[in-house]
Amino acid sequence: MSGPTPDSSRDARPTLEAVAARAGVSRATASRVVNGGAGVRQPLVEQVRKAVEELGYIPNHAARTLVTRRNGAVAVIIDEPEFRIFSDPFFSRQIRGISRELNAHDAQLVLLLVEGSGDFDRVTRYLAGGHVDGVLAFSLHTDDELPAIISRFRVPTVYGGRPGTSGDASEHAVPYVDCDNRGGAREAVRHLVSLGRRRIGHIAGPRDQTSSLDRIDGYRDVLPEGDPSLVVDGDFTVEGGARAMAHLLERHPDLDAVFAANDLMASGALRVLGRHGRRVPEDVALVGFDDMAQVADATDPPLTTVRQDVEGMGRLMVRLLMQRLNGDGAEPDSVITPTRLIRRASA
C-alpha cells in the first residue's frame, strides 16, 4: 500500500504533537498554552507560541473550550425591530465599538435581534444551549422580558443603558454603561435659554426607555414651570420627529426653540419647520442629541447637538463583561460617561 505523496505531506495540517516537538515540550504543556490554560512558565509559553507561528498551527476550538470552559463568543442582544437597527446610526456605532473590543479579546460577536414577543423563545433556547460566554444587551424597555430571561441562565451580562427594572438597586444588579442623559439634556435646554428663547418645546423619545425619561427630566430641570403641552412624544425616528414637530406647531404657533431627544427626530423636525416657512435658527432654534455625523453634519443648517461617545460606550461594555468573565476582583461598577454640547448653526 502506497504512503502519502510528498505534496500531500507538505499540505497536511500541523498537529499539536508537531507543535510540542518543535517547542521541546510535552503535548500537555503545548495544549495548555495553545488553548489558554494557566500554570505554564513564561519561557515555555514563548517557545510554544513561536512553534505555533512557525508551523501555522490552528487551535482546535473544541479542545480550547474543554480547557478554558469558554466558547469565545458573546451574544449582543438588541430589543428593537430590524428596520431601526439598520436605519439608526446609533446602533451601527455601538456595535462597531463592541466588535472592535471583542476582536481585541479574541472573542466572536453573535448578534440576536428581538423584534417581538415571539423572539424571546428563540433567545431563551439559544442561551439555554450554552453557546456564549456572556451577554451584552441594550435598548431595553421598562417592561422588557430580557433581563429575567438572561438572569435565569446566570450568564455574565452587561447592559447598554440604565435598565428600568425594579431590581436595579439590589446587590445582584447587573452593571451597565450609559451616558449622562439628564445632564446632556440640561445643557441643551440651558443653551436655548441663553439664546433668549422662551417657548421651548421638547420632542421626547419613547417613555418606556430610561434614556428618554432622563432627557425629559433634564428638560424639566431647566424649565420646571414649563407648559406640559410643550412636550410631545416621538419614537427616535425621522418620521416620529416630523409628526411631533407638526403637533408642536399646531399647539404652539409661537414656538421659538425645540430640543429633540435624538438627532434623527431633530432632522425630521427640521423638515417640517422648513415646510411651514420657519427659518432655523432665526425663527426656531433646534438642538438634537447623540451627535451622529451621518445626521448632524448632513442637515441644513448643520445641527447643534449633545455628543455622547457611542462607540466608546460599546467598548466599555465589553471591558466590563471581560472583568466579570475573568473574575478580576469585585464586580465592576456601572459607568456613566460624560456628554458635551456641540454648537453648530441650528442653535
Describe what you observe in this structure:
With 347 residues, the protein is α/β, with parallel strands linked by helices. Helices cover 45% and strands 15% of the residues. The protein contains 15 helices and twelve strands. The strands form two sheets. Strands 2-1-3-4-5-11 form a six-stranded parallel β-sheet, with helices on both faces. Helix 2 crosses helix 3 and helix 7 runs parallel beside helix 15. It starts with 5 loop residues before the first helix and ends in a 5-residue tail after the last strand.
Task: Please provide a brief summary of the model.
The protein is of the alpha/beta class and 347 residues long. 45% of the residues lie in helices and 15% in strands. It has a six-stranded parallel beta sheet with strand order 2-1-3-4-5-11, sandwiched between helices. A six-stranded mixed beta sheet has the order 7-6-8-9-10-12, with helices on both faces.
The class by helix and strand makeup works out as alpha/beta
Number of strands: 12
What spatial order of strands do you see in the largest sheet?
2-1-3-4-5-11
Level of helix content?
40-55%
Please name the defining characteristics of this protein.
six-stranded parallel sheet, 347 residues, alpha/beta, disordered N terminus
Which SSEs are present, and which pair or pack?
Blueprint lengths: L5 H6 L4 H8 L3 H8 L7 H14 L5 H8 L4 E6 L3 H4 L3 H16 L3 E6 L4 H11 L5 E5 L7 H7 L4 E4 L15 E4 L1 H14 L5 E5 L5 H13 L8 E3 L4 H14 L5 E4 L2 H13 L9 E6 L2 H4 L7 E4 L2 H17 L8 E3 L2 E3 L5
Parallel strand pairs: 1-2, 1-3, 3-4, 4-5, 5-11, 6-7, 6-8, 8-9, 9-10
Antiparallel strand pairs: 10-12
Helix pairs in contact: 2-3, 2-4, 3-4, 7-15, 10-11, 12-13
